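Human: Can I borrow your eye for a moment on a structure tokenisation matter? Separate attempts, laid side by side, tell us more than any discussion would. Could you pick a protein and write out its sequence and tokenised fold? No explanation is needed for now; the record alone will do.

Assistant:
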Amino acid sequence: MGKFSLPAASMLAPATGAADQVGRDAAPARVQAVGAPASLKILHILRAPLGGLFRHVLDVAQGQAARGHRVGLIVDSTTGGPRADEVLARLAPKMALNIARVPIARQLGFGDIGALQFVAQRIASIEPDVVHGHGAKGAALARLAPRGETTIRVYTPHGGSLVYAPGTAAGGFYRVVERLLNARTDLFLFESEYIAQVFRDKVGPPHGFVHVVRNGVGDADLAPIVARADATDIVCVGELRSVKAIDVLIEALAMLKHCGRRFTATIAGDGPQREELVALTERFGVDDQIRFVGFRPAREAFAMGKLLVVCSRAESLPYVVLEAAAAAMPIVSTRVGGIGEIFGPEAGHLIPADDVAALAQAIPGALDDPAQLNLLARTLHARVCSEFTVDTMVEGGLAAYREALARRQIARLD
């Protein structure tokens, strides 16, 4: 591969000798797929160090490193702020292949050429066994960059381009891109059965090997949430953009106020719709009932309310629901994406998306019957603890890598 002129980037390196130590500590006795090395070299590529996608990559990368694999990350350098800097600095000593940061924009643009050059340079330098792209932009860079003969390309959507509304220009464009990149994908590692079916419906049959590995939570997520003294009736956690449907919650609270029921809410998150949503609370006359507190870590945000409301128009398998369920926090949620997979037999409690009246009915129905609400919370807690764990997620992903590596080796020999 030729030399590239690289864009400005930063590199977080592990402690001296960490790469050699990881290699020595790898467990050679572990059963391996044919031709796969005991210690894999794995490069994760993602855009923003924010939200559930970032949480997923952190958990997966640390779990892989703990099992003796050599892991590295490429992450956008323009988002995340001081919190992302701190989190990545703590992770760096565990990453034998380092953490590289380079500008990666959300939307397509000329800057993507520099990002792609950087990714290609890192792949050529590291020669990874696995290049794993997360989200629409991270996965596009992972699949467009050249790779070695034995390297597999892996794609986890996390919703991404698959949740753009049908009929929109952006949705149509990104689905065309997905079709073009389909053939450059060795392993589709979907995080829910729902998103796997969405891919088939919107893009077509996946070209590569398909495996579903659901997101998981760890022991730290199981501690109960203690509500703050100033906790509101409701808390919403997430980025302030249309897909999260905070506007529907605002209208539902206005409808309830008109009917003589006043409920308070905390909105924890930032995003492009913040000013629009604040103005909407004023227009509906509920600005004295709703506080916007900006970004907060999930558990800190949970303590600001008594009931988590998830009113999203679209999701994949959201961490906010998993984390709240793991902490036995009461939840009212829309029936979108893979949320039904989390609720399982209790999915009948979910409500339709974009339905103000249904949400206005569900909120008092939940808060007026705390015994039933807490019973559902305990049931979901037990389900998440048994079926949605970090260990299961990490092991499932590694098993899928090994099968995809074996399939690629067999294809090369045929």
